[in-house]
């Protein structure tokens, strides 16, 4: 039954938007605390965030290239292997661009 506290992403209910905004704010606060207050840095996150626009475009291209290898009823080890291959391919291309000093920024 329809009510005001229904959590639905498809319908865009107010309760879902408030809940997801709260989680996003909490996650942002955690990243702020770890990176700015405690001064901790991750090379993986720095590589992904340094060329985020290329990562966004590259994400779709790498997924399309690996789409032929995925199967709907794949075992867990195969799905994890394909996910690791996807992440490694994306990361290595971004790392190569970072080493060459090539950044796409607006």
Task: Report what the structure shows.
With 106 residues, this protein is mostly helical. It is 68% helix and 0% strand. The longest helix is centred in the C-terminal third of the chain and has 25 residues, at 76-100.
What attributes characterize this protein structure?
extended, 0% strand, 106 residues, mainly alpha
Taken in chain order, the helices and strands follow as HHHH
Query: By helix and strand content, what is the structural category?
Result: mainly alpha
Q: Please indicate the percent range of residues in DSSP E strands (runs of 2 or more).
A: under 5%
Mean pLDDT: 91
Concise synopsis of the structure shown:
Helix content is 68%, strand content 0%.
Topology:
Elements: H1 14-37, H2 43-50, H3 52-66, H4 76-100
């Amino acid at each position: 039954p329809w009510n005001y506290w229904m959590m639905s992403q498809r319908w865009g209910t107010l309760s879902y938007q408030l809940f997801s905004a709260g989680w996003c704010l909490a996650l942002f606060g955690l990243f702020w605390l770890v990176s700015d207050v405690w001064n901790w840095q991750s090379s993986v996150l720095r590589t992904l965030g340094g060329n985020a626009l290329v990562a966004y475009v590259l994400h779709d291209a790498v997924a399309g290239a690996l789409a032929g290898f995925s199967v709907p009823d794949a075992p867990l080890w195969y799905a994890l292997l394909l996910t690791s291959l996807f992440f490694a391919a994306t990361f290595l291309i971004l790392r190569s661009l970072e080493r060459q000093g090539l950044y796409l920024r607006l």
